[in-house]
Every structure is written in structure tokens, then in C-alpha cells.
Amino acid sequence: MPMLLIKGSYHLVNSRADGDTIPFKPDKKEEWDLVPGPHKVEQNMSGKAKLRLEAIDTLETHYARNGNPEVHQPWLHGRGARDELTKWLGFTSVDRLPDETVTAATPTTCPGWILTRSAGRDKRCIALAGKGTPPGTSGTFINVDEALLRTTFNHHILKEGLAYPTYYTSLFPDLREELTAAVRQARAADKGLWKDDDTLDGATVTGIDSLRDDAVILPKLFRRLVDYLYLGDPDNADLTGFPAFLDQAADQFWIISAGHSTTGLDAIVEVIDSKVRMTHPPEDLVFVEN
């Protein structure tokens, strides 16, 4: 799979970096212009921009939409993924405010490189994150195979069981299968979040507090639940309208095991009274980026 290699450095101070989002600054900021796709990477004057790490989704440490209050998922695995990223990149200490804003880091920045093919609609660069010696010349496209993928943080965090796989159609099947192997290995060993995962077994949702404190579920499902609950009384969940809400959201995705595309998460989400569960594991889904 050809991807653009960009050499630069990771930055934490004044950000709210979590387990799958972190600022990155290329050594040559004009290399952002080489990122393919319809969306440009949003950057500041120095060239620093936010990364959204490809194919992974870690538990939310601060989610808000449409002016609603911020909500987080259970802290253990969300902060665990956040801390694993900073440690893996080479940061030895990080100071944060209660709202997760980083006030100091040692060292101030860490060198590294990324591999990318696009930016999302939110103008964050979608990337594989690497460290150490770059696997090629910065500003050029290189072939990314399974061996190179295994050197990235994206593969590492799935192997550690601290992130859910969340695939999009832009990722080639051979790389997706390599990541899925790491996911299944972590799940079989009950590593990280998998020992607490409620995505398939079902999470009891009685209100925002249950999502914040108890339910360990796929973050995409968590975000849809939060948005739905804030349409009514967020402290007293009435889930009878949730399937219709998912239908209206119209997420487009493929179910790999079924071999067909589907629109609407209501096709794979089951609601029985106050319990919500997905009927397919996350690695069986490939979402369409829109």
C-alpha cells in the first residue's frame, strides 16, 4: 500500500492529546501539501497539525458535540491508551490539567515520522505513527507492508489491547488483516480493555453516568449514544428511539463476513430494554469515509 512518508516531531504541550490523536510537526511544513485527497491538512503557522491515528479508536477522554457537555468513557483504558502513546513515542513525563490539557512534557518534543494517504473532513491528518529511523525519504511515497505496519504505534496499541479496531475503506485489506490478527491475539489473552469490553455482550445504559463510569464499548457506539441521550433527558435514558436515531445517522459500512455494504448502525446494534449491544465485532466492519 503506497503511503506518503513525512519526517518530523510529536508535540504535546497545550494539546489534549489522547490515545489516538496527537499534534505532529513536519521538518518541512510544505510536505503537508503532498498529502493526497480532497481535504487539506489544517496547520498553524509553524506547520504543526493534529493527527488522527489510522485504524484505531481509543476510549474517549473528552467528547462533546453540538454544544453539549463533555463526556468521557471509563478512565482506566482511555488514560491507559493515552499514556501508552506518550511513553511509546519517548516522552518520559507529562503534566496535565484536569481537563487533560498538557502543560509540560519531558522531553518537549519527540522525533518521529508518519505514513499517510489523506486528511479527514475535520482536516486532521489520518496517519500511521512511527518512531526511530524513517523507513525512507521524507516527502516521498513508499510501500507499506505488514512488516512496516508492525513497527507503528497503530499496530502496537491494538496488540496491547488498548484500542478498538476501526477500519475505513482507504486501508488496504492486507494491512487490515494484519491489524485484525493483533486484535484477536489481544482479545484471546484478555489484554487491556478486552477483559472489560461490553460491545458484544451488551452494556446497560441508564443515562450518561453509566456510559461515563461503567460501559466499555466501541467509541463510535459510545458517541452515537451520547448524541442520542442529549436529545432528551441524558440522566434517564429512554432507548426506544435509538435504533431510529442510528438509521438517521446513516453510517455507511461493509460487513466483511457478510460481504455486503450496509447503511445505518441500527443493522448491527440490538437494543433490549436498557441493554445495547453490537451483533458484529469491530474488526468485521469497514466504514466508508465521508
Overview in brief:
By secondary structure, the chain is of the alpha+beta class.
Q: Could you please describe the fold and organization of this structure?
A:
The protein folds into two domains: 2-192, Beta Barrel (OB fold (Dihydrolipoamide Acetyltransferase, E2P)); 197-287, no CATH class. Helix content is 23%, strand content 27%. The protein has seven helices and 17 strands. The protein has helices at 75-89, 146-149, 153-159, 173-188, 208-213, 219-229, 242-249; strands at 2-11, 21-26, 49-53, 56-57, 93-96, 102-106, 109-119, 125-130, 140-143, 164-165, 167-168, 203-204, 252-255, 260-263, 269-272, 275-278, 285-287. The strands form five sheets. The protein has a five-stranded mixed barrel with strand order 1-2-3-8-7. Strand 15 (269-272) and strand 16 (275-278) form a beta hairpin. Helix 3 (153-159) packs parallel to helix 4 (173-188). The chain starts with a strand and ends with a strand.
Features:
290 residues; alpha+beta; OB fold (Dihydrolipoamide Acetyltransferase, E2P); 5-stranded mixed barrel; 4-stranded mixed beta sheet
Secondary structure: elements and pairs:
Layout: E1 2-11, E2 21-26, E3 49-53, E4 56-57, H1 75-89, E5 93-96, E6 102-106, E7 109-119, E8 125-130, E9 140-143, H2 146-149, H3 153-159, E10 164-165, E11 167-168, H4 173-188, E12 203-204, H5 208-213, H6 219-229, H7 242-249, E13 252-255, E14 260-263, E15 269-272, E16 275-278, E17 285-287
Parallel strand pairs: 3-8, 11-17
Antiparallel strand pairs: 1-2, 1-7, 1-9, 2-3, 4-10, 5-6, 7-8, 12-16, 13-14, 13-17, 15-16
Helix pairs in contact: 3-4
